[in-house]
Amino acid sequence: MNNIGIICNRNAGRGRAPQLLDAIMRRLKEEGIPFTLLNGDETLSIDTCSRIWIIGGDGTLNRFINAYPNVTIPLAIFKGGTGNDFAWKIHGEKSFDECFETALRGEPRPIDAGICNKKYFINGVGIGFDAEVARAINNGGKRKSDFSYLAAVLQKIFRYAEKQMTLQVGGQVKDAMLFMVTAANGSRYGGGFLVAPQAVIDDGLLDIVLIKKVPPILRFAYLPMVKKGKHLHLPFVETMRCDHICISSDNCLAAHLDGEILEGKIFDIQILPAHFSFLF
Questions:
Q1: Residue 44 sits in a domain of what CATH number?
Q2: Which pLDDT tens digit goes with each residue over 61-102?
Q3: Does residue 280 belong to any structural domain of this protein?
């Protein structure tokens, strides 16, 4: 075991990330294992690190992979954010001790990533309603939390209007009025909504979930089903799998990549099989 590089977003998780950092450093010191605090400084070299441990949520991980998109060093993510959707995907309900031991002594496993308009993502891309929710949270100047996400959902769910979009997949073109589109590598978004429950992080494919036009009152009624991942059979939901999809509109749309906002009229999205190496 050489040098472990640690990146901690001290603002993540409403104080949880610094507490995790303290616990991790204490354990590493007890075992006499060298580590370097990188402090999220993207100018620092990671070449001397044998493993990179990231403490934070989906946004922290997204910023790291976009700073180091071709990193081959094994990565570990600790649940230091508020939603921790990708960490949940790979760790489930593992305890801190279990995650620590895996990050320290486990064997790395390849997982897929994605790229959208030259920006990398690990969990997924959302266009439409969920992107507007993410933008409302980001623009609100408040710390992200499960409550803030749910509050934004309830604020937007009756007012949001479906958008005309064109989808190009596998040589076919589809025009539709859509409430939202998800191109998923992981399963969960927004701190616990199982939008793409069947997504697999190492199958070399994106899970596409289309939610078509839905009357406002039905949106509210079906929201618990989306949270539990029980919505795929509904008549206004369509799913497919692909390695490349292009989504466009005549109007500027909001998208989120792992919760980070991107705006545009064209979103070219493709999977990058086995792009990163993770410890889980």
A1: 3.40.50.10330
A2: 999 999 999 999 999 999 999 889 999 999 999 999 999 999
A3: no
